[in-house]
Amino acid sequence: MKKRRIFTLMLISILVLSIFMVGCGNGDNGDNGDNGDVENGGESPDRVAIATGGTTGVYYPLGGAFANIINDYVDGVTANAESTGASVENVNLLNDGEVDFAMVQNDISYYAYEGIEMFEAEEPMENLRGLATLYPETIQIVADAGAGIESIEDLAGKRVAVGAPGSGTEANARQILAAHGITYDDFTPDYLSFGEASDNLRDGNVDAAFVTAGTPTAAITDLSTQHSVVLISISQDKIDEIIAEYPYYAQVVIEAGTYRNQDEPVDAVAVMAMLTVRAELSDDLVYEVTKALFENLSDLESAHARGGDVSLEGALDGMSLELHPGTQRYFDEVE
Ligand code: GLU
To answer: Please, what are the domains in the chain?
Structure first.
């Protein structure tokens, strides 16, 4: 009789304890729904969100392809790619746990992690981790061919689309203009996505637009078939100055023929697009995602030409964040 009571008591305690443990397990989950068990000291949600950019950029199709890779090759995980204002918004979403992965420029992720430049007033975003750098994103300055704009200096006094609010593009526009002695007081800035900038340029509401994205960028390709536009080169001395001040920029050329009626190569600077991940995700999950990505790179290439630039060999070029340990484990294994 006594034995049986002890046994019942033990059973109740185990039951209470396990209910408590299940409660704890779900207690510190992020905001994106059904997170699963906590393992490896990290979160393993069964649904993950990926922050991309505007629908006429390159982040959006490549982020969508990345989501499909997770859906197709990582067991038990459903991924969803979201359209956003791009880099600056994306690091904020990642830092707040609103998304799990994000496409971000390498300069912006560095500024966010260090809490400098446009993040100076905020706490450093120390939970940002790198997964891979992907492809160069060129700072393209496209102008209405009839607006009399031949150099960056000519943008003073004009109506200029400087990128969506919360975009890396906007940060690049500010830095490049500053290197030419131009501030936002010297012209009328419009905070537009690539698609909006292209429509407004075509309709004569803006004279020029900054677009930081992989080439060719759909927004410029479409615009160049409907309207006469030119790409503006940056002079060599200014390119040198910009790179000396901000080391994440590299010198590039936009090859002739990238867009319709573009007969000459254009001198420009570029940063790198990268995939970032929240430090809180479990090593096992990030390992599986990294493995799935690198074993299915052709799926990225089918989504956009720049997807073809992504490679295991180049995955650390311009890497501006500490790697997630799950990614590091994959790289160590395939080395
Ligand atoms: N690099 C751009 C930005 O963060 C977005 C590029 C894209 O959407 O492809 O502003």
So the answer is: 39-134+273-334 (3.40.190.10), 137-271 (3.40.190.10)
Contacts of residue 333, defined as CB under 8 A and 6 or more positions apart, other chains included, come to none
Per-residue pLDDT reduced to its tens digit, 149-184: 999 999 999 999 999 998 999 999 999 999 999 999
Q: Whose CA is nearest to atom 8 of ligand 1?
A: 57
Quick one: pLDDT band at residue 335, thresholds 50, 70, 90? confident
pTM value is: 0.87
- Ligand 1 centroid – CA 131 distance (Å): 17
Q: List ligand 1's pocket residues with C-beta within 6 A.
A: 53-54, 57-59, 86-87, 105, 137, 163, 167-169, 212-213
Name the closest-CA residue to atom 9, ligand 1.
Answer: 58
Element (H, E) at 266: strand 266-278
Q: Which residues contact 65 (CB under 8 A, 6 or more apart)?
A: 299, 300, 302, 303, 304, 307
CA of 307 to the centre of ligand 1 (A): 14
